[in-house]
Amino acid sequence: MKTTRRQTLQQSAAVAGLLATSGLFPQHAHAWTNAAFEAKTVPDALKAYGGGAPTESKDVTLTAPDIAENGAVVPMGVATTLANVKHLLVMVEKNPFPLVAKFDVSESVDPNFLTRAKMGQSSDVYAVAITRDGKALYAKKEVKVTLGGCGG
């Protein structure tokens, strides 16, 4: 007996429905803390992830261009050699919502991440490592934007 594409799709949908109702798929996934991504300042975003007063550190590195020709897509990287790190954050101080990215770190993860951010204007960019005991260590760099990414 030949199975048509339509029958295969119907059977796949039925199996997916059974798996979803059986509890094998997570019903709710929270990848971030809303308060942190809705924070209007860098300290408020740090506080939402349990970070204390930030301290500059040579063990946290930030890679970003000195001049971003297009603020809509600015490549950034964050890394650390610190032990006991829980989160790595990328923040742009003058963005309406400074928190750009949050990466969870565990023993099985190399704490070295790349991302792209939107910047509306020239600003200080922060890479912040939050340790399991609540310390916030950061690296900072000024990135000049020649063409704004927020409609400018």
Automatic annotation (TrEMBL):
Residues 48-150 form the Ig-like SoxY domain. Residues 1-31 form the signal peptide. Pfam families: SoxY (PF13501). Keywords: Signal. This is Thiosulfate oxidation carrier protein SoxY.
